[in-house]
Amino acid sequence: MFSVIICSIDPVKFSQILKHYQHLFGSEPSELIGIHDARSMAEGYNRGLARARGEFLIFCHDDIEFISPTDWLNRLKNHLAKFDMIGLAGTTKLVHPKWFQAGPPYIFGQVAHVGGIPKWPEPYGVTIYSTPSACVSGIQALDGLFIAVRRQVLERVKFDEKTFEGFNCYDIDFTFTAYLADFKLAVACDLPVIHQSRGKFNETWLRDAQKFLIKHASQLAPEKNRQFHWTNVAANTRDELVMRMLPSHVRSLL
User: Fold this and answer.
1) Structural domain of residue 199, as residue ranges?
2) Which of 45, 60, 84, 97 stands 20 to 30 A from 4 (CA)?
């Protein structure tokens, strides 16, 4: 059974994501737990976890949509049969709470956004960090827009609500802590997703990032100052998005 835990203060978004997961799971046993008054993301997720009954748990934002739902569940199950924790973007070398700061060749995954790419006219944009295979192993930390995890991980690792009292860095802390506990993390590149919002690296984020660095500084990989970039790809339609996010070398592995 799958338990999906979502912190949401927007009734419209929550209704939409509820229907979306009902469609994705179909007849598969599942439950969706909404936390609508979370004091922090970590506190809300821990409260949802206390109510969850599933063998597998999903923690995700309320503004995502998987755009290739056919066989989505089987792909996710296959990944969870091999790994303890699955995300959609992450790094094999964590150097900073801004996980993608490791740069290539250590960052993996892809995420589409509504609103396209700044200064480009197309309505959709995809940020592709790297997608060398359907699933990438050896991951140290995952982005929190979507995290699927086996229950046994949560018997040893919880979200740190004492340290992270807001809505930032809870995900990097949780996933990196699981990695340090010898659980196996991976990035799924064959679950293309649209995220309605982008991260904000403001003063609040900087405050939580500093807390993360105080907690984990000695365990991070050395950071080397270097210039790097990843790929941004535009798309006009949702079908085009799917084609961009399921390239031939990934489709052949499905």
Assistant:
1) 2-251
2) 97
